[in-house]
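Write out structure tokens for FABP6 protein.
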Amino acid sequence: PKGTMAFTGKYEFEGDENYDAFVQKIGLPSDKVEMGRNCKIVTEVVQNGNDFTWTQHFPGGRTTTNNFTVGKEADMETMGGRKFQATVKMEDGKLVADFPNYRHTAEISGGKLVEISTSSGVVYKRTSKKIA
């Protein structure tokens, strides 16, 4: 069936749009801003039905993992390392989560992981290519 296991895989950062405007808008500290710029983040997703493990591997060995079930509240961590609770929803094959100061969507499009974060009208788009 469509949408089953669609997200599972390993994806490497390929490019982004509007990074600076977005991180400024969400108030990311400047050291984190530099760390994230053109950062070859590898995103590893394991999907088991509605259960997800979403891990980001940063150069230098730091990782962030969010575990969540679609439709249930979960403990999450932001780009800047802030902890919060969110309920991830599935809308038209996209994962949608409301972070404290931005809305995040993720979808698989043309074999790539496309993530879009929106904060007060600023749209940040990140594309990652599948490597495994």
